[in-house]
Amino acid sequence: MNKTFIAAGIALMLGQLHGSAIAAPAARAENAYLSQQDAAARSARVANVDYTLDFTLTGGERFSGSTTLQFDLNDASAPLTIDLDKATVHSVSVNGKVVPTQYNQWFVTIAAADLVAGRNSVTISYERLHSTNGEGLHRMVDPVDQRVYTYTHFEPAAAHQMFPSFDQPDLKGTYAITVTVPADWVVSSTKRESGIEDLGNTRRWTFPRTKRLSSYNFSMHAGPYKVWEDGSARYPMRLFARQSVAKQVAPQDWFKYTRQGLAFFDEYFGLPYQFEKYDQLLVPDFLYGAMENAAAVTFAEGGFLHQSEMTAAQRQSLAGVIMHEMAHQWFGDLVTMKWWNGLWLNESFASFMGTLATAEATEFTNAWQGFYSGGKQAAYVQDQRVTTHAIETPVPSTANAFDNIDAITYSKGASTLKQLRHLLGEEIFRQGVHNYLVKYSYQNAKLDDFIGSLGEAAKRDLSGWTRQWLYEPGVNTIAADFSCAGGKIKQFTLRQSAASAAMPTLREQRVQIALFKLTPQGLALSKNLAVTYQGAATKVAALQGAACPDLVYPNYQDWGYAQVQLDARSFATAQANLSKVADPMLRSMLWQSLWDSVRAAQLPLDDFLKTVLANAPAEKDYTLLGDVTGKLRMAKAYLDEMGPEVAAYRNKVLPQLEQMAYKASVAAQGDNNFQRRWFGTFLGLASTPAALAQLADILSGKQVMPGLNVGQDLRWEIVTRLNRYAYPGAAALLAAEQTRDPSDAGQLAAVAATAVQPDAAVKTEWLGKIHDLQTKLPFSKVRKAMENLYPAEQRALAEQTATQRLATLAQVDQSAGPVFMRTYANALLPTACTPASVARLQTVLDQTRTLSAGTMRSLLVAHQEDQRCVAIKQKLIK
Questions:
Q1: Under a CB-based contact definition with an 8 Å cutoff, are residues 815 and 782 in contact?
Q2: CA separation, residue 624 to residues 184, 316, 466, 627, 768 (Å)
Q3: Domain boundary among 516, 537, 571
Q4: Which of 90, 137, 675, 835 is deepest in the core (most CB within 10 A)?
Q5: 514-561 pLDDT tens trace
Q6: Distance from C-alpha of 53 to C-alpha of 64, rounded to nearest angstrom
Q7: Which of 432, 447, 470 is the last residue of a domain?
């Protein structure tokens, strides 16, 4: 996208968000989405919204409701729309009078003649199917005990899939709710219930009116959930989970991290938690990791249910996600963006604050190291793609709300906030955040409001910083340029280069430059200097006369957001001396430099794998080991996708890698964390007959690895791996495991183990189910099949349907919608790591003009990554 268009779009957006006059369109577009223009026109007319909601849930496929909206209207001369998706509307009354229903399955239109200037009341009675795709009011039947569970998910704009609403963030409202449910159900919402009336087979739950919230932050969850309670924090805490999975929940960990987080954020923000109680719910079929509903946070079961004792990595993930969602209770729920272009700031801030809280309030003091090797690297990858974008981008309608929700939104945004905290100073940054939250509590705010609060605290104009970091895409590269004479540094310049000619922005940033010397004991830090740089070159006179280093790292401790290009001497030192680097954060960054060189087709992949074989088994830092073994799995994926051209090398190196991981698993007996990390690596590498036989023997109990608990989760991973490579008898093992574990998690695992089988008939059957948009299969199973249908090594099978998938891509994209396509386009676009495959995708790009923005992005990424794979392969086989 050219810069002129982006600038024009941003100017239009900012004009709208600053409240400049916007003429209402003649009529709202007849589709499922709300445009920013229509939302702005509506919020200019409507204020002081209150909802009175009444629901009846029976456990069946449909639910019924009655919603009364009361609101002030300053202009009654035009019709007003109220969002409601795919419902059967029974009646509409306006200001006490029943009126004809004008409803198109997306919104109800209230005629101007029925409205008055001032206070209005609209009551809509309706019924609707429960959702089964994770949005709106989702319903799930537990296959273990046939109990029915429901929960809501409204982000980005799905509240109107449950009740009539002004479903836009800048029309905050209050919510009073009554819910009639089966007698054995419990209900959680934003407030604690004020009464429960026993009606025999049903009970009626009443909840008092909430404080002002955007519609996507309100929620209601109901079902026969198991409930744990804890009163050890300042605010009462509860945890909910399905009865059949309750044994997999460790409530003591949940309550510990929640208690630590609430205390941390109360103190950090200087503003007490505003929503009185803190519920957290583990829910099935969830689309995302978690959701920050005010006082009733939902979490995906798949990420947080474990049939074995949690590892340190799993506990850290739990703590981090709890903290992320908790930060939203202030930043997102209490103070909310005006429109969906501000969603990045919500997520970036929560990612930054969630990591800070994890590092400072829990036992996971190395949380920033995990952020560096996980989220931040994903941001660097995303920022170097052809689809990179500014952090702040226009969002024309709710159809586009998630188009740019990615690692740039979460992790680059969080990195810029981390950098800004270093630039301004920790206490100034905290004071600016406090002032912002106090000033805009229960209101909507814009980016300028947030940056303005920070700038006021710092007594500095941050408009230039904002332009550089938030409105310009791309990642800069920094490099140390120095010379030595007589063992001392003669001159030292920190050089900054732009992302490309098309993205020429150079940025201001504060980093630490660290100098290291090789000693018999290892690599020792000889000097560390904090520097604020800007422009193409910054001379660092303070380093003149320092001892000439063996290695220079110009972003020590990861203050900055920049790719680091090591000078030749430093790169050679890093490659040869990784095991001699005592600091795990620096070691992680040096490993990353090697991997960056592989992805740039500068360092041959086999050189990287030699470094892994030489250094990984001795790694003693648990977080860093996870980073290295993750890169190892990515390296194997490259080798698999490269096909027969690298068969000889792959056949030589894979047994070495497999047995390195297996022996390390055995050697880690007594340390559950390291053993499970190494065994997971072995499992993710296993593809030779010998390694698969080892897995089969471990599954059957014929072979026992001391210390390893082969629980149900691990059993399914092994069964899936054996089916992936058609190990003899694997299908029978799958059938036996389905009998052993009939749970919904087991059913999902069985879908993966079936779809992944290297069998053309299986692929055809599952592709047909995926393309059947009327299927009765839960979307969670369809999504699982997509993710497992064509693993990298099954290139020949994938090619059999590649032409069909590309030919029908536009049709599927148009019919299926964004939730479906986010998985489909990322999993099922055919790549083969060949020039012909690259050319095939280029042809589709040249000839296709009708794809949605999200699917087009996925297509562009697939094309670029296919090119990258070809380049890495060419470097390997030279």
A1: no
A2: 47, 14, 33, 5, 41
A3: 571
A4: 137
A5: 999 999 888 999 999 999 999 999 999 999 999 999 999 999 999 999
A6: 11
A7: 470
Same-domain check for residues 380 and 502:
no
The whole domain housing 422 covers: 337-470
Q: Name the H helices within 440-553.
A: 447-458, 463-470
Q: Angle at Cα 215 formed by Cα 210 and Cα 220, nearest 5°?
A: 65
From the list 192, 166, 196, the residue with the least C-alpha distance to 180 is 196
Residue 829, CB-side half-sphere exposure with 13 Å CA sphere:
28
Does residue 290 lie in a domain region? no
Does residue 463 share a domain with residue 481? Answer: no
How far apart are the C-alpha atoms of 668 and 671, rounded to whole Å?
6
CA–CA gap between residue 638 and residue 17 (Å, rounded): 45
Amino acid (1-letter code) at residue 520? P
Query: Are 416 and 493 in a shared domain?
Result: no
Specify the residue for token string 């996971």: 364
- Residue by residue, what is the 3-state secondary structure of 407-448? HHHHHHHHHHHHHHHHHHCHHHHHHHHHHHHHHCCCEEECHH
55 and 125 share a domain?
yes
Task: Annotate 562-579 with b (16+ C-beta within 10 A) or e (fewer).
Answer: bbbbbbebbbebbbebbb
- Listed in order, strand segments (DSSP E) in 43-99 are 46-57, 62-73, 80-83, 88-94, 97-99
Q: Kindly give, in sequence order, each residue whose CB lies less than 8 Å from that of residue 34, ignoring residues fewer than 6 positions away.
A: 28, 83, 157, 167, 168, 397, 398
Q: Are 380 and 410 in contact (CB under 8 A)?
A: no
Rounded mean pLDDT for each run of 10 residues along the chain, 878 residues in total: 32 36 64 95 97 98 98 97 98 98 98 98 98 95 96 97 98 98 98 98 98 98 98 96 96 98 98 98 95 98 90 96 98 97 94 97 96 95 94 93 89 96 96 98 97 97 95 96 96 96 95 95 93 96 96 96 94 90 94 95 96 95 96 97 95 97 96 96 98 97 94 96 98 97 94 98 97 92 97 96 96 92 96 97 93 94 97 94
The tokens describing 249, both together, are 């929940």
Residue 596 token pair: 């960056």
Q: How far apart are CA 555 and CA 548, in angstroms?
A: 18
- Bridge partners, 66 (sequence order): 54, 125
Write b or e for each residue in 397-432: b if 16 or more Cβ atoms lie within 10 A of its Cβ, otherwise e: bbbbbbbbbbbbbbbbbbbbbbbbbbbbeeebbbbb
Amino acid identity, position 852: S
Q: In the chain, how long is the greatest CA-to-CA distance? A: 93
Give pLDDT, residue 9.
35
Which phi and psi (to 5°) does residue 56 adopt? -125, 120
Residues 426 and 556 in one domain: no
Number of alpha carbons in the 13 Å side-chain half-sphere of residue 613: 14
How would you list the strands of the sheet with 296-300, edge to edge?
226-230, 237-241, 278-283, 296-300, 290-291
CB 332 within 8 A of CB 367: no
Distance, in Å, from the CA atom of 191 to the CA atom of 186, rounded to the nearest integer, reads 14
Sign of CA dihedral 539, 384, 356, 585: negative
**Which of 41, 271, 276 has its CA nearest to residue 166?**
41
Q: Model confidence over 575-586: pLDDT tens digits?
A: 889 888 999 999
| Beta-bridge mates of residue 69 | 51, 122
Same structural domain, 182 and 163: yes
Contact 616, 629 (CB under 8 A): yes
Is 636 a domain residue? no
**How many helices (H) does the chain have, and how many strands (E)?**
30, 28
Is the pTM higher than 0.85? yes
Same domain, 458 and 485: no
Reported as type and span, the H/E element at residue 109 is: strand 107-110
